[in-house]
Structure formats: C-alpha cells, structure tokens
Amino acid sequence: MSNKQQVYDELLYCWESSPDEHLAYTRLLNHVFEQPKSNLKHIPFASFRRVVAAPMMDDETLLNLVFHLVNRGRLLEVHYELIEDDNCYEITLEELGEAEQSGWLAHPETGEIVPSYKEQVFMYFKCSSYLSSLSGEGAR
Amino acid sequence: MLTLADVERMKNHPNTKSCIIEYETDVTGKPQPYSDFVTRINDELDAVVSKLEQARDYYNKQSEDFLTNFICGLLQQKSINATHGDYSSGETDLKITHGPYEWIGEAKWWEQDENAFEGMRQLSERYSCGSNNGKSNGGILLYNRTGNAADKLERLQSLYMSKGAEFSNIKVSSDNKCSLSFNTEHHHSASGLPYSVRHKLINLYHVPTDKSARNRK
What we know:
The complex is a heterodimer.
Chain A: H1 4-13, H2 19-34, E1 43-44, H3 45-52, H4 59-71, E2 76-84, E3 87-91, H5 93-102, E4 105-106, E5 113-114, E6 121-127, H6 129-134
Antiparallel strand pairs in A: 1-6, 2-3, 2-6, 4-5
Helix pairs in contact in A: 2-4
Chain B: E1 2-3, H1 4-10, H2 17-28, H3 34-54, H4 56-59, H5 64-77, E2 81-83, E3 94-98, E4 101-109, H6 113-127, E5 137-144, H7 149-161, E6 171-174, E7 181-187, E8 194-203, H8 211-216
C-alpha cells in the first residue's frame, strides 16, 4: 500500500517537464493533502483557481490538472448537482446516464423535465475515500 | 462554476479531450470506439512530438529511453494510461491502454534504415499480438537528427513496399494529417489479421548555420 509521500512523488513525476503545470499541480496536491477532509466535501471548480494561484491559466489546463487528481491520483471524485434558485439536488451518474440516452433529465424531486439540463447541472469535486485513508482520516 | 455543457465543450478541446474521455470510460466502463481511440492517441502523440521538436537542440542529444520517457510523461499528464518499459513479451517502449484496448509503440533513433525495420520487427513480431479486439494498431516513433526528413521518409515508404516477404501483404499509404508520417498495414505474423502501424518521424535535426552558430566555431 502506498503512503502519502510515495503517491505525492509518483503523481508529480510526470509534470517535471512542464514547469508551470508542475507548480500548479504541486499546489493542488498540497491543498488536498493538507486540508482537513471536512473542507473537501464540496469543492466547486472555481476553488481550484484560487488554490493554484495562476489567474492566467485557462480553464482547460486547470481542468486537466484537476482531472489528473481524479483519474490518475484517485484523490478526488466527481459529483454533480442540479442548482435551481438556491436549491441544490444531487444528481447520480445513473440519472445522468439516463438523461444522456433520453435527452432529458427528470427533476429528482418533482419528476418534471428539467429544460436545458446541461446548463443547470454543475460538476463539483469531493475527496475520495482513498485520499482520506492516505491522510489517516478513514473513509467518510 | 462548471456545467455539464461546459464539460461537453471541453471534450473537443485538445487540452481536455483525453482527461474527460478517460474519466468517462472509468466511471461507465465503456471505452470509446477503437478507431476513435487510435485517432485520439495519434493526435496526442502529434501534440507531444511538437513539443520535442520545439527544443530539438536539447533533445537531439538524448537517448531513446529519455525521449520515450518524456513522451510517456506528457501523455500521462493528460490522464492517458501510457507506460514506458511495460512488459508485453518484452519491454515495450511505449504502451497505451484504454479499457480493453492496447496501442504499442516502438521508438528508434533513425541512424540508418535498418533501425526502422528492426523497430517494425520488434513491434509486429515481439510486442504485439495483432488480435482484432482492440489490439490491431501500433506505432513506430523514428527520432531523426539528420536532415532531409521528407526525402528519408519517402525512401523508407518505398523500401517497405518491397518488404512483402517479411511483412506479409504489406500496404503503404500516406498520412493525411501529417506529412512526416505514413501508415502501413500488413498481415500480423501471429494472428494473420491486418495490423496497422503509423510510422512517425520526429524531427530533431539542429545544425544552424546562422551568424551566431558560425561565431561559436
């Protein structure tokens, strides 16, 4: 089983040839490892821009860095929520899969069709149980 | 805030296409169609090679392993499951997997044409199995530090056309996306099935003759 330092070093290794991304990724890793996991239960994408402190970095480069933590690092998970006025409704992957097939999303409470659902469903990130275990905080 | 619509748009962006597709495959268990995977990998390799070529004065002094490891690292940055030295009946230079699919690349410094053919033999007779369930494509990466790359590549294509005895039923075709690449297809010696290889020349020639270079001599 890997320890935190091993995971940190392994994940950073492939960024060595890209100095700007390496710095940003280091900041992301430090953030997810050092923050109490209770602070990592609902991370909107915009938060990562503050973490990397790179205002000129485009969204695509930033998203690629964040997804690296998801795909390769398994440190974060992706979640989805429907935001309607001030209310948030968690949308599962299964519901999204059905919506993709049918072309429409049923409101999780009312069952009514959500118009233009792709503009109203937002992605956010959450620490994984793997990250929690690396940090010694156990699965939450 | 990132909407699903934003993510869908980013799926077409070269910086985010792979990380999103790899994520979707991971959560759904459904890989993208094999031909799309091959196209995506070739596009990503072209982008990586472009970075190598931008600093060819540095990279043309490096070993094959160094260069291939560099390529591997840049692919990994995009969440592509690329490895250098992974085992497949031998240590592969570059192996990329996506779900059940596999793409293997063999890299060589192209000092003479025999290097290219040796790479092709290793790829098609040692590392690949050539089965048609997502393992029917591979690549040869030819690191080149001598000039006249286009002429060399044209000559190599002609030489491959005469290699039918060695690579059964070989066909050679140009690559519409890149003039320093070409494609071959032959009947894989193990499976007997068509095996497609993209041969890509990486141009690391750097012999400037400008005033600054002359003054340095």
